[in-house]
Amino acid sequence: MSRRNGRDARRSGKSERMTRKAKIKNNKRGRPRYDQEDLAAAQAFRAIGRKIRLSRGDVRPLWVQLRNQIEEAINTGGIAANSRMPSEQALCDLFGISRAVVRAAIGSLATGGRVVRLPRKGTFVAPPRQHVDFMAANLGVFDDLTAKGHRVSTRTLALYRSAPNEQEQNVLGLPPEGSVVHIHRVYLSDGLPITMTHIALPGHKVPGLELLDMENHSVFQTIREHYGLTVQRAERWFTAALPSKEECERMGVSPNTPLISIESFAYDAEGAVLEYYQALYNSSLARIHVAINQEAPLVVINGLAHGTGT
Fold it and tell me: Is residue 209 part of a domain?
């Protein structure tokens, strides 16, 4: 065999091997590219992505900024329910951020029930909830009443940061040199005072909270949007109470009117106390209904799932 024929044979064999590899690669089963599988969702997310702005100079972490803006796009219909989210790497490339930032943002959205992760399929925008209760959504009185169409307002009596007293050190697990943010406010439903709450939050988890305008804003929504903090569970105790003269004036009730005293502990994802509060609740405006099943008790006020005073 001539040298030329030998070279031709080797080339032919190499070409056949490359062809076989190409066929095997094309026949492999795998998840389709995002823009091929869900073109409409990909186009919608690219449009949303052009509006999302992340700033390293913002006091909020990058992952909180990204999480909030994606959630806003979901709430306003910019990203449709059931559409598939881009991959972590695609989001990294789109916004020029690290995978850790993307992973934290998507993880927080998944914890809050806004997106759903399906093995081997991807991450999808969750469909809207038809019914919301406190145990599932971790909403406070402000959020529950607002969701039901009531006009909710607050009257902030005090908002400040201080050193923890002995009780706060024990309850919040703080050292003597730590700090506590105190929020003392009255909640009004359709113009009528319904609860007065003393709230204590661990200061190191909410830097600068005492400088924010909290009037007519949900505490839970504020700490979620600014610090990425969410409540996973809560424990509470109820007792009968007679308010003081000052408390009667602030709650708009006559002297010797019985109210319900509530003590509550709310825990974050790590099991640490995120919020401690004591409140007085006026049950003459809304009854408390308790439904109990084999899994967990649910407290409902006039059809509103109720768990915390924030």
Answer: yes
